[in-house]
Design brief:
The chain has 13 helices and 26 strands. It is of the alpha/beta class. The protein has two domains: 203 residues, Enolpyruvate transferase domain (UDP-n-acetylglucosamine1-carboxyvinyl-transferase, Chain, Alpha-beta prism); 196 residues, UDP-n-acetylglucosamine1-carboxyvinyl-transferase, Chain (Alpha-beta prism). The strands form eight sheets. Strands 1-18-20-19 form a four-stranded mixed sheet. A four-stranded mixed sheet has the order 4-5-3-17. Strands 6-7-9-8 form a four-stranded mixed sheet. β8 and β9 form a beta hairpin. It binds shikimate-3-phosphate (S3P). Shikimate-3-phosphate (S3P) binds next to α1 and α6.
Length: 416
């Protein structure tokens, strides 16, 4: 069963979250087209409304009316969305009011002290439940700080930059490796006093934000990734993903697949609001194993499961270095990859913080598989099914809607 044709992946989840959330601090009105239809971004829009923002749907567009920082105290359900919760922690820390942030069972297992601790050093009043949600915030006066992060995390970086916008003096955030910079780009476009810091990283000062009148969200390259890898590993396949975001902090999978010899071409077609274009991939019978270095991981952090599937079909041992962050995503993704791809016949193992995958290995479905309620594991297993020529039985496969509601429909349309 090959996959052939073209697909428009949904609007980028990270950019959609940021447009929605930043409207809480900004003045003006923004017409957003191609806003992500996913469940996570619905959690963000619901949070924005509860906190006093105004969101309107006009046909295909989402219209955001800036709340100019005048927020109302509220209890917010962030659903499954770590981005909603972590960015809100930084955004709310400096606003007058009392706020509670909670989420589903998966989100309640995820660490929040990595955000709460540096915020508290800025004077924030944040409390967690043993380091996890629910999180409560009493808005307080903040002081700018210099933060040197132990992990490269765009969510953590963004939370601190958002707090810095409201803090006295200057806030500097330095990461061990670069992560996606959607926050820095959008805040710059909204008129924030933000710039690269002399010492590396970013610095921000208190600023007034103005929404751009319109914003077109590019397609989500993390959603496109599943179709692209499906094409590369399945004989006879050729897929083009259209209108996809090509932010350098998001295209690590593309570089790594090209290094593995994949037939994959990228054509940039525009740069507003970020680089975007089309990405085409075709079946590549002779994929080669590779070593993925620690500094590459943040650039493909959400693509590790689907890259692991690609590596099962490559000649040699692929190593992904320092992937510990994967343990604290929507599921323990390392455990999920090792058990589920292992049950399909892949040869893969973990050693310390590294993941090893030896290929090529024929995959053969037997029995039932588990998504662990994690959208990226569910979609990886669906692509494994394409490779095996049969639909796998996967528990909670519908959780794909957390990031890609039309995933199964789009995949079916590509199937020959
Ligand atoms: C995101 C950042 C990443 C990523 C998540 C979305 C963002 O998390 O895994 O899906 O929008 O900032 P970390 O930066 O915390 O690794």
């Amino acid at each position: 069963m090959s996959i052939k044709g073209s697909v428009n992946p949904p609007g980028d989840k990270s950019i959609s979250h940021r447009a929605g959330l930043f409207s809480l601090l900004a003045t003006g009105t923004c017409r957003v087209s191609n806003f992500s239809p996913c469940a996570d971004c619905a959690s963000t829009l619901e949070a924005v409304s509860r906190l006093g923002g105004r969101v309107e749907r006009q046909g295909e567009e989402v219209v955001l009316h800036g709340a100019a920082g005048k927020l109302v105290s509220a209890a917010v359900d962030c659903g499954n969305s770590g981005t909603t919760m972590r960015l809100l922690m930084g955004l709310l820390a400096g606003r007058p009011g009392s706020f509670t942030l909670d989420g589903d069972a998966s989100l309640r297992r995820r660490p929040m002290s990595r955000v709460a601790d540096p915020l508290m050093r800025m004077g924030a009043q944040v409390s967690t439940t043993d380091g996890r949600p629910p999180v409560t915030i009493e808005g307080a006066a903040l002081n700018g700080q210099r933060h040197e992060l132990a992990v490269a995390s765009a969510q953590l970086k963004s939370a601190l930059l958002l707090a810095g916008l409201q803090a006295q003096g200057e806030t500097v955030v330095i990461e061990p490796h670069l992560s996606r910079d959607h926050t820095e780009r959008l805040l710059t476009a909204m008129g924030a006093d933000i710039a690269p810091a002399d010492e590396g990283g970013w610095r921000v000062r208190p600023s007034a934000l103005v929404l751009p009148p319109s914003l077109r969200v590019p397609g989500d390259v993390s959603a496109a990734a599943f179709m692209l890898v499906g094409a590369i590993i399945t004989p006879g396949s050729e897929v083009t993903t259209l209108g996809v975001g090509l932010n350098p902090g998001r295209v690590g999978l593309i570089s790594v697949l090209q290094r593995m010899g994949a037939k994959l071409t990228v054509t940039e077609e525009g740069r507003d609001p970020e680089p975007w274009g089309k990405v085409s991939a075709a079946y590549t019978p002779e994929l080669k194993a590779t070593e993925v270095l620690p500094q590459e991981i943040p650039l493909l952090v959400d693509e590790v499961p689907i890259l692991a599937l690609a590596a099962t079909q490559a000649q040699g041992v692929t190593v992904m270095r320092s992937i510990n962050e994967l343990r604290i995503k929507e599921s323990d993704r390392i455990a999920a990859i090792v058990t589920q791809l292992g049950a399909l016949g892949a040869r893969l193992w973990e050693e310390g913080e590294d993941l090893f995958i030896e290929g090529p290995a024929p995959l053969k479905p037997q029995g039932r598989y588990d998504s662990y309620g994690d959208h990226r594991i569910a979609m990886t297993l669906a692509i494994a099914g394409v490779l095996c020529g049969q639909t796998l039985e996967v528990a909670d496969a519908a959780c794909a809607g957390v990031s890609y509601p039309d995933f199964y429909r789009d995949l079916e349309a590509l199937q020959q």
